[in-house]
Protein 1
Amino acid sequence: MAVFAIHSYRPVPGRAADLVASMAAAKKIVERHGARVFVWSPVTGGDAGSLLFVNGYASQGDYGRGMDSIGNDPEWQAFWAGLMADPSGVNLENYLLSDLDPSDGLPAVQPGVRVSVTFKTRPGRLAEHMAAAATAKAHIVRLGGMARTVQSFGRADSTITTLIGFEDFTHYGEFGEKLDVDEQWAAFWIGMSADPPAEQVESAVVARFDLPE
């Protein structure tokens, strides 16, 4: 059951290159403490022009131990003090995503494109919502998407988000074409739409942003 700590930043005007360099330096430190770091750039939805710095951990325990280890690292403390003295980015948001499926671990390969769709559970219908999310995930995987369902901490309470990964935008487009004509998906979606256990509150598409070495 993987955990993802997400930190969203918008560059200070004229300091985009400095923000990217800071993230590259942070990545090297954080990964020494057991995290896998990757960065996303919003394409649709989210905050335009921002970057999402993501620390991935294989479990809640790894997340807790990693946070303690990073916080006690003198190199990290000095790095963070320097950022605070001359920030190149504005911190927009910090939150956690945690897998609902305990069999999901850290992805072996980070996709090039990721779609997120978030639904807020209607009162008294959590079990139905979770069942619907699991069914949707199975359809998405059947059609070629890399799917996982997560809950958030620190934003969008009482929601479940489906994350769908693709190798690149070509595969994203091909998936959409298959979804449009898939009869099993259509039957599922029509059934859910007739009496939805949740309402959609957010969606976004982000692209992987490769930091310099």
Protein 2
Amino acid sequence: MEARFYIDCIYSVNFRDLAALPDLLNPGDLANLVNQLKCKPMGALEDMRLPLEPEGWYHIYNRGNEGRTIFFSPDQYRYFLTKYAAYMSPYWDTYAYCLLPNHFHLAVQIQSVDTILEHAPNDLKNVNRQFLKELSQRFPEIGIPPSDADLLNFKNLVNLFAAHEHGRYQLAVYAVRERFRHFLLGYAKAVNQQQNRTGSLFQKLFRRRRVESEAYLATLIGYIHRNPLHHGLSSDWMTYPWSSYRSLLSEHATRLKRDKILEWFGGKALFEQTHLEYTENWKSIERFLME
């Protein structure tokens, strides 16, 4: 994939409806395109409620409570990445990441329903009563008693919906959200203990945006990798130690979807070239991206 400038889906645009438009856009075309589409920005509350649907691509973002620090030492960056891989690899594939002192960005694709529900019964013991109530209302044909204690067990629910496609889909959506929430809670608990602090480490709800095209994903990857420069943390974002940029260019084993990403960009050389062009022309697309 030869990539340059792409419109970001911070605006509620369905890229499947834009098939007639060229993928590549010059910087000067972006504002005109948005005006023609009459797009409205997605609000933060909408971001926080967006379901993480199986096989969907997402930009996930969270920051410290009140914008405060979430990484106090290099060991905590390493701990975050290690726990992240252990918790989330069965639930989504990671395409890019960047960890900064008070926030982080991820570009991910959620796994299939079957893959999620293969792992979730071992990772999630119970569901909350509100979710069980929502299931009983959404699927009255199943006849779920909202107060049935046995059905608070996630594995029992998976068995109950074994032949119900839409029910399995909802269970998968719930499992991904809860697994990531548990990961953040676990990291926060460990950091609070290390730093002798109390209270919320992260904002209560993490933000996410649906990625509707490979074109947007290419722009998003560049945006994520460039974040250290954007926030004045490093004059050379390419050597920043807590992003996926160097891992994507290395030969070392990685859980990142390296081969797929480099194929989209047309190889390592074009991947590097596109990132440089993206950085040089950052101001032309800055207002379309989430922070």
Protein 3
Amino acid sequence: MQLFLCVLQPRKQFYLSNTFFVMHSYLHLRLMSFVKVIVRMVFMSLLILSAMSSNLHSQTPLLEIKAGFDFFTTDRLGNIYLIDGSKISKYSAEGKELYVYDDYRYGNITQADMYDPFKIALFYKSFMQLRILNEQLALITETDLSTLPHLGIVSAIARTNENNYWIFDERNRQLKKMDASGFVLTMGPVLTKDSTQKILTPVSLCETENYLLLQDNKNHILAFDKFGNFYRSIYTPLQLAQVQGSADRVVYHNREGNLVFESIRDAELSNKPLEGLNDATQIRVEKNKLFIGTQNSLRVYAIE
């Protein structure tokens, strides 16, 4: 019996020792795996931050157009349009000037809608004139909106994806949808100062996939649903020459030099740090390109 116990005791000690060694090795491996995961996450975060932050001063622009203009816009084909007073100039994606259209009889162009690059809509607010140009900036049709019934005082206009138009009637403080002939298809509710928290003095209007964006003054945007119902107000830190919306986001830049994408639905902000926006008077994002308008030039950069 004593011999049996003497034989079992070393085995028990060996078993406990072996178990401790296995557990120690297992915990060591788990700890090392955890450390590797943390290191990898930190490394990837640094890479992401590095990729997000871009110094535009150190980049060579894809192209630069030396010209003065009031505002600019782009189309889905990559063409660039500079609007200066009553003149609109079309440039290719490579920066070559292609066509020019200028008719000073109706004053300055206040909006240029490129939703359909083959039917470009120009709006002259002072005379309530809507003109449609082809891709070569030749006149197709012109409409005097002041002669059409039920439109009121049209101060902003936007093309819809149904080839109709949203207009803002400043007299009745109301969004209205009309067809190409000017027939009113639908009307949103009359807006009150209490609902918008602002007396409306529209500058521009644009349609996104899910919303309508009315630029009231240089740094105040009103978002509406597709039925013309007021949704919420958006305030930008800097003045905007023209509002740009994409899907359910508004695109603008701030004083810190960030490119900002603000969710219309929930106001969530996504910032992309960019150095080199200090002299920007207008920015626009189109197909991984950043367009920066200044007092006397337009620069184009590639962004991720």
Protein 4
Amino acid sequence: MKPTLPLALGIALALTVSGCSESTSTEVAESAPQPTAEVAETTNPDMANPFFAASDLYMHYPPFDQIKNSDYVPAFERGMEEQLAEIEVGQMELLRDLLQDLRDVEEADGSLLDNTLVLYGCHMGDANIHNNS
């Protein structure tokens, strides 16, 4: 295998993943709608949220008598973040396996990976504004 090919693939993969995960554009930040006071209050991580605390109840149910309506939004957001992180790890493992399988197939002039162009895209519709549609 050519020594520059794995390096180039690693750099391309890192740039693709980093482009999907964060945006540094001030234009996007300025155009984003400002949260209302109610939403800002519900997403404050310093608030005591019963969904985030470990529970001693049967099947680890949350203490329903302590839950307020404002506790749901932060809990849903955290759950979605955790699930997305799991999905992204799974996708990276699949890509790793594909690249290893391509590397392991020998051809007359190198491996199949040496003769393959791999284009890996982002799952987001528009990664600059974190839009999944």
